[in-house]
Design brief:
CATH topology of the largest domain: TIM Barrel
Helix content: 40-55%
Shape: globular
CATH architecture of the largest domain: Alpha-Beta Barrel
CATH superfamily of the largest domain: Aldolase class I
Oligomer: single chain
Number of helices: 17
Largest sheet: 7 strands, mixed
Length: 470
């Protein structure tokens, strides 16, 4: 059977245009590799990277004539996923439409009941489930025997037992990069010399308990690691065959296991891999020796989820960090010569206007290289979503409106309009100041750096468009 995997146009569907960076759909690439290894004929359509409209997707489905169409969907993309499923059925009524990703993993029954053109949801990790499911569909087998799916049987939705987690990530084939438009991908910020960009998986799972994280619906709290050798084998493949010079090393918490992080850095150094990379970790899991080794191994940007200047809010979010740890982590990261990317959240239930203003001031005080200000969003699959539903705090049941820049909560004492203005104020306060602009200008060493800085400016305009300060 012919399988077509589709990544919806996230930039158009969620942001309404470019934000300066485009990441490859790593999850679909892993599933494509697993399906192909099992003998399926697979194609991947990255509508996001190719800037495809719905009618373009329709034409691609007509051209490929797939028997099975798989679509990935985060919560903000459920509307796009539903539209693609309807197009698939219009083109080929007997095609089987499968949707996977964070949202269907969290709310499979709700998604199937809302979208009658979606036939099956994949829950959690998709590689082994996709292979089992496709093989079962090929022989018209009993779907009740496939672990890790939900499906419609008449008007009833059946949710099967979850599939056990993949214990050894090294057993997975490398993502099917050759099926993707590799020349289209780029990191939002200046990273490495001119060349290609890719994302490489390091581990899955996170042992921490942040209430806003929805990844528990897919990967759970148990952390599983790829070996350093396996990761660097893939990095060398990307550098050699696709001209990749910039990477995101994908991990919920890159330094969660210090020994393994050091081993990966040592392997990159030993093999002299010519690539620069960025990653994400926690402010309470770094030290100068580790950061220095990461810098030596090619780390240029390190992202921290700092979230708030209020310890009360940090505790509500179960973040498990302090503002003093944030200050020290930023100081040490700068000392190691790594650029600092800081994530903040505004509009958590219980937060006041003054708390938000304190967070904006804290971002300036830390003076990292980049800052992102998101509005706290209760994504399905998170503890925050469950709590918000229970307490009646969610103002809409339209999941397409669950976006990092659009208020979803009813926050006591802060209107939607005021929260949007405070977010715009945060961006302007951090980025539009002489000291920051001079610092960034001093780092321009090439035309490529200038282009990336221009894309960063575009992103800033997207994040703050139509939101004026008082």
């Amino acid at each position: 059977m012919k399988v077509m995997l589709i990544n919806p146009n996230y930039l158009k569907g969620v942001y309404g245009g470019s934000t300066g960076g485009i990441a490859p759909p790593m999850g679909l690439a892993y599933i494509a590799a697993s399906l192909r290894e099992s003998g399926s004929e697979v194609s991947v359509l990255d509508a996001n990277a190719l800037s495809l409209e719905m009618e373009d997707i329709r034409q691609e489905i007509k051209n490929k004539k797939p028997d099975i169409i798989g679509i990935t969907a985060t919560t903000p993309l459920v509307e796009e996923a539903g539209a693609i499923s309807r197009i698939a059925k219009e083109v080929k009524k007997e095609s089987i439409v499968i949707v996977g990703g964070p949202h269907p993993s969290a709310l499979p029954a709700d998604l199937l009941l809302r979208n009658k053109t979606i036939d099956i949801c994949v829950l959690g990790e998709g590689e082994h489930t996709a292979v089992d499911l496709v093989q079962r569909i090929e022989v018209a087998g009993d779907l009740s025997l496939v672990k890790g799916i939900a499906y419609r049987s008449g008007e009833e939705v059946i949710v099967n037992e979850r599939r056990p987690l993949i214990s050894d990530l090294d057993d997975l084939p490398f993502p099917a990069w050759e099926l993707l438009p590799m020349d289209r991908y780029r990191y939002t910020l200046p990273l490495g010399k001119k060349g290609g960009y890719a994302v490489v998986l390091c581990d899955r799972g996170c042992p921490f308990s942040c209430t806003f994280c929805s990844q528990r619906s897919i990967f759970s709290k148990k952390v599983r690691f790829r070996s350093a050798a396996n990761i660097v084998d893939e990095v060398e493949h990307l550098v050699k065959d696709y001209g990749v010079t910039a990477l995101s090393l994908s991990s919920s918490t890159f330094t969660v296991n210090r020994r393994k992080t050091m081993a990966l850095c040592d392997e990159l150094i030993r093999r002299k891999v010519d690539v620069k990379w960025q990653c994400t970790t926690r402010v309470n899991l770094v030290d100068l020796e580790l950061l220095t080794r990461m810098k030596q191994a090619g780390c240029e940007i390190l992202s921290y989820g700092i979230e708030s200047a209020s310890q009360e809010i940090l505790d509500i979010l179960k973040k498990g960090i302090t503002t003093e740890q944030a200050k020290e982590a930023v100081r040490l990261t700068k000392k190691a010569g790594i650029r600092v990317y800081m994530d903040f959240m505004l509009g958590t239930p219980g937060e006041t206007r003054q708390m938000i203003l304190d967070t904006i001031a804290f971002a300036r005080e830390l003076d990292g290289d980049y800052a992102q200000f998101s509005i706290t969003t209760p994504f399905p699959g998170s503890e925050l979503f469950d709590l918000a539903q229970k307490e009646g705090l969610i103002k809409t049941d339209d999941f397409a409106k669950f976006r990092y820049y659009a208020p979803t909560f009813n926050i006591e004492g802060i209107s939607t309009e005021e929260l949007e203005k405070l977010r715009a104020k945060a961006f302007r306060s951090f980025y539009v100041r002489p000291s920051y602009m001079l610092k960034q200008a001093s780092k321009i060493k090439s035309l490529n750096d200038l282009k990336k800085l221009a894309r960063q400016s575009i992103s800033l305009r997207v994040f703050t468009r139509n939101k004026k300060e008082d």
